Amino acid sequence: MFNQARRFAPKLLPLACAWCVTPVLADVQCSSAARATWMDESDFRQQMKSQGVQITKFRITPGNCYEIYGFDENGKKVEIYYNPVNAALVAEITPVAMAAP
Q1: Which is more confident, 87 or 96?
Q2: CA separation (Å) from 52 to 43, 73, 83, 84, 93?
Q3: Could you tell me how far CA 12 lies from the centroid of its own chain?
Q4: Among 7, 35, 44, 70, who pairs with 55 as Cys (CB 3.0-4.6 Å)?
Q5: Long-range contacts of 69-72 (CB under 8 A, 24+ apart)
Q6: Residue 53 to residues 3, 6, 24, 35, 85: CA-CA distances in angstroms?
Q7: Residues 8-38: pLDDT tens digits?
Q8: Share of the chain above pLDDT 70, in %
C-alpha cells in the first residue's frame, strides 16, 4: 500500500497546490468604479493585441477585473487580471502546472 501512495503522490501534489492557491485568486479586487467608466471590451482586446498578447479566454471576475488567459509576446502562457477602467495590470498568476522547474 505504501508503494501505491508513493506512486500517486507526485501526481497529486500539483492538484493540492492548485487547490491551495485558488482561494487567494478569488479575492483579487480590481475596481470599484461604475461599469459605465470601464474601458470597452473591444478596446481592451485591441490594446492587448497591440502589446503582443494573444487572448484565448476573457472574462469579468466577481472582483471587477478583466481576466485574461492566453500567451504573452514571448509565447508564455499567462493568466492576468487587469483594472477595467485603465487596463492597469493588477495581478499576474503563474499556475503551478506552468511554473518553471
Answers
A1: 87
A2: 14, 4, 18, 19, 18
A3: 22
A4: 70
A5: none
A6: 45, 40, 24, 24, 19
A7: 555 544 544 444 444 445 579 999 999 999 9
A8: 67
pLDDT at position 51, please?
94
Nearest C-alpha neighbor of 100 from the set 74, 77, 79: 77
Whole-number pLDDT of residue 3: 57
Cα–Cα distance for residue pair 59/45, rounded to 1 Å? 11
Whole-number Å distance between alpha carbons of 65 and 101? 29
Secondary structure of the chain in HEC code, one letter for each residue? CHHHHHHHHHHHHHHHHHHHHHHHHHCCCCCCCCHHHCCCHHHHHHHHHHCCCEEEEEEECCCCCEEEEEECCCCCEEEEEECCCCCCEEEEECCHHHCCC
User: What per-residue confidence (pLDDT) applies to 66?
Assistant: 97
Question: What pairs with residue 82 in β-bridges?
Answer: 66, 89
